Amino acid sequence: MSQLTMFDKTVFLIPAREGSKGFPHKNRKLFMQTLRTMPEELKSKIYVSTDDPAIKVMATNEGVDVVHRPIELATDEASLKSVMQHFLKEKNIPDDYNVILLFLTYPERTWQDIVEIYSEFLKNTNSSLICCEETSDHPYLCFKFDEEKSLGRLVVEHDLYRRQDYPKCVRQSMFFACYKAWVIQDLHDLLFEDNTLFFKLDEKKIDIDYEIDYNIINTIKE
Q1: The domain containing residue 60 runs over which residues?
Q2: Alpha-carbon dihedral sign for residues 43, 62, 76, 86
Q3: What is the per-residue pLDDT across 96-155, written as a single tens digit (0 to 9) for each?
Q4: How many domains does the chain have?
Q5: Element (H or E) spanning 175, and its range?
Q6: Using CB atoms within 10 A as the burial measure, which of 42, 48, 79, 168 is most buried?
Q7: The domain that contains 113 carries what CATH number?
Q8: What pTM was computed for the model?
């Protein structure tokens, strides 16, 4: 299967709302970096869901289809699941299509990363795939903390004191995610479901939340 024909029944969704408290307008800065990783032949399969007028202009100029995100889906409280459901309805995406979700906050992601991970998804019968990575903080060592009383209790109740007895844990990474269109309505708000395949990344990827993250990435590239 060639790199292009494998995407025949596939669409790419870029979520890119305007608001961002930690790094204002970060999606404007990151949009073109993600778009440049995509082959020109697949531009017609790319959609951007946004309420940001600047991103709408950039997307239109690049030949990318814009999904006009309503105000209620552009708040801090709105779930990505609801954004994806809105996209499916607005663009009449067939149930048997695959939706690849490309968060702009992972500028380290390359086209070859996309091909490699999506190929793994196509080899399996799972209805969804997300990435995961090693976590340095095991949940068995984490406490819910009450600042007012300076008290805490275990997030996960257990009586194990030896680290080697702790279960193997990884943390979710949205470096890459893809879904059968029909399963999106059944997703958890954290964008996984019972049949989700986890693709373990070789190393931790920077997820840009703040400007310092953005500066680190640009320093690495230099």
Answers
A1: 5-136+170-216
A2: negative
A3: 999 999 999 999 999 999 999 999 999 999 999 999 999 888 999 999 988 888 889 999
A4: 1
A5: strand 170-180
A6: 48
A7: 3.90.550.10
A8: 0.91
